[in-house]
Amino acid sequence: MIALFLGATILLLAAAVVDRFMVRASASLRHLVWTSAVLGTLVLPLTTGFAPAWKLPHVGGAAGEILARVEAIQAPRPSRQRQRRRRAPASLRSSQCGLSDLGLH
After folding, report:
1. Distance in angstroms (rounded) separating the CA atoms of residues 25 and 32
2. First to last CA, the chain
3. The pTM is what?
4. pLDDT at res. 35
């Protein structure tokens, strides 16, 4: 999903840059550039099955630290409720099992 968003953004930004340099070109040619960009964004989801996956390199430095903090904030936190200790059943308590005689209570 993010790859589609990034691909569409890059495609539309490229069309905007090309359009900016085509100041004196005809309107039909500029219209062709934008139509191609919009059609490209519509075809982009169909091409994801054929194109290789994008893998981002490891981010280090300040950006890596920020990403680590964001991931730590988004990670599920363990429950802070204090768990009650369960007592062993009466049949297993050391005073009734004879373990106190062995000094293992």
Report:
1. 11
2. 59
3. 0.48
4. 97
